[in-house]
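Reading is simple: each integer encodes one residue's backbone shape. The lines below illustrate:
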Amino acid sequence: MTKNEILNKTTWDDYEIGTCFIYVPLFEKEIPFVFFQNHEPTPSITDKMLACVNDILELEKSAIETIKEMLWEECIFSFTIGDYGYEPNDDETHLEAHLKGFKISNKDDAYAKSVVKEIQIDEKNDELSGRYAEIKINSASDNLIAIIVKNGKLIDFDYDGTYLPSFEIDEQCAKKNREETIK
């Protein structure tokens, strides 16, 4: 997509946030792209932000399998460390009780019970060496997560409010933090 095509479809609010609905082949539907930027001199998107949009649009169909695996991992992690109100029977673990309670038994279930909410691109990330976008998903465990896209590649997921500069140092920093948490 070109910058003009995006800007012609983008509405800007009083908080300098732009929203543009774009068809994303990977998800086979329109998804709102949310742009955070400074209106200097007028509302626009930077070349790096444009590249991020195109990175998302050019993701291969096989990327959906990576997203499914991340969503499954998110369920396992969340149900391991959190309590969502399902008590285990004598013959099952806390994790098993929650997976059963949420009716999730594999990555396909985790994906089917999740909702892609929006894709966020922030001009502040232009100062980083990589190009970053966040695919915001309400996961099957009812957590808002961000699947991090760096330079057109799905690298990791983290919870809403993640600090993207950390991924400049280590693309798997959130995964390592999750692993440390459940040790």
